[in-house]
DNA sequence: TTATTTGACTTTCTTTGACCTTTGTTTGAC
DNA sequence: GTCAAACAAAGGTCAAAGAAAGTCAAATAA
């Protein structure tokens, strides 16, 4: 027996053209006569990054939920492999840099992008994780900008 | 669904020639059939100094609102200004994105770099600052890689 | 047990309107 | 004619209401 979640999933899949769809949570919930949070349930259980989906949203007036499906390719295979086997839920700086070097030699990122990312994850950026998100973010952004300054 | 604020923003952008525009708050509000204060809302949320806009105005008869978009050729000056005046030691996500948009419009970063950095500082990356540097790093890196995946 | 459904409560963004301040223009006493 | 008072014409502020989406835990179903 199909659950309502299965049906909502199918519906979304059928609508997902060009690998992208914009929808309204309330409208959808209304259409399927379910609680709005059921839509979130479907999204978190069926449209996960592991399955190749990315979900973005905005609250408030004019709010929306956007689902992007990225089609698989060698590049994505490669990156998924790195994420699942080497990064997992923790990675130290040196190993992270090795992964980035790998991406660089495979032309998945260029020199400048490499530098940006190395900066983002450097100890300089991540030092002092004082539980205050905005402070960490400021550090990351400041460091990336300083890095960009250095060029030429 | 686009909000009226989005539409007003687009209109202003389309009119903003030579990086400068003069407009009447009441006329605009009338044109878009909205409250005059809605214009202020659009200005304060979308035409911020961080994005490189300056808004001046004058009240009374013959009053006006003037919007100027500043661009720069001195990359280093520009970046230092952003760091010292807007980033400082803490910045929230929305303001950080405005700064990145500023860099994008000034051709200091390109689309892909923009996406990488937005990802690095997104709440998705920074959530759960559990005091464990490597875990945060893993999240940042994972998110950046997923972002890169999305292209083409 | 595990997966699904529901609903109360929270957070974020937008819209509206009442009231405020500043600036320019008329008007009337002198 | 001058000048201050009154009036008109902008724009500014702020808080309340409205519109979405998010979270989380309890209830239910498989």
Residues in helices of chain A, as a percent range:
55-70%
Structure summary, number of beta strands of chain A: 3
Largest sheet report of chain A: 3 strands, antiparallel
Uncertain runs of chain A: none
Return Rg of chain A in Å: 20 Å
Provide the structure class of chain A. Answer: mainly alpha
> What is the annotated CATH architecture of the largest domain in chain A?
Orthogonal Bundle
Can you identify the CATH class of the largest domain in chain A?
A: Mainly Alpha
User: What count of helical segments of chain A does DSSP give?
Assistant: 8
Sequence of secondary-structure elements of chain A: HEHHEEHHHHH
End-to-end gap of chain A: 64 Å
**Quaternary state of the chains:** homodimer
Main interface pair?
Answer: A-B, 53 and 51 residues
Number of domains of chain A: 2
Strand content of chain A: 5-15%
CATH topology of the largest domain in chain A: Non-ribosomal Peptide Synthetase Peptidyl Carrier Protein, Chain A
Can you give a write-up of this model?
The structure is a homodimer. Chain A is mainly alpha-helical and about 150 residues long. Chain A folds into two domains: about 5-70, Phenylalanyl-tRNA Synthetase, Chain B, domain 1; about 75-150, Orthogonal Bundle (Non-ribosomal Peptide Synthetase Peptidyl Carrier Protein, Chain A). Helices cover about 60% and strands about 10% of the residues of chain A. The first copy, chain A, contains eight helices and three strands; from the N terminus they run H-E-H-H-E-E-H-H-H-H-H. Chain A has helices at about 5-15, 25-30, 35-45, 75-85, 95-105, 110-120, 125, 135-150, and strands spanning about 20-25, 55-60, 65-70. A three-stranded antiparallel β-sheet of chain A has the order 1-3-2. In chain A, strand 2 and strand 3 form a beta hairpin. The first copy, chain A, starts with a helix and ends with a helix. The interface between A and B is large, with 53 and 51 residues. The structure holds a DNA duplex (30 and 30 nucleotides).
């Amino acid at each position: 027996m199909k659950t309502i979640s299965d049906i909502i999933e199918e519906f979304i899949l059928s609508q997902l053209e060009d690998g992208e769809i914009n929808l309204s949570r309330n409208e959808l919930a209304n259409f399927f006569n379910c609680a709005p949070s059921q839509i979130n349930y479907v999204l978190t259980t069926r449209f996960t990054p592991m399955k190749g989906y990315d979900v973005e949203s905005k609250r408030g007036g004019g709010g929306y939920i956007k689902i992007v499906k990225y089609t698989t390719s060698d590049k994505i295979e490669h990156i998924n492999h790195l994420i699942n086997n080497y990064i997992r839920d923790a990675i130290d700086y040196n190993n992270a840099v090795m992964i980035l070097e790998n991406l660089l030699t495979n032309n998945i990122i260029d020199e400048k992008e490499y530098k940006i990312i190395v900066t983002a994850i450097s100890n300089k950026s991540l030092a002092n994780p004082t539980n205050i998100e905005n402070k960490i973010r400021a550090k990351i952004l400041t460091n990336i900008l300083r890095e960009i300054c250095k060029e030429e």
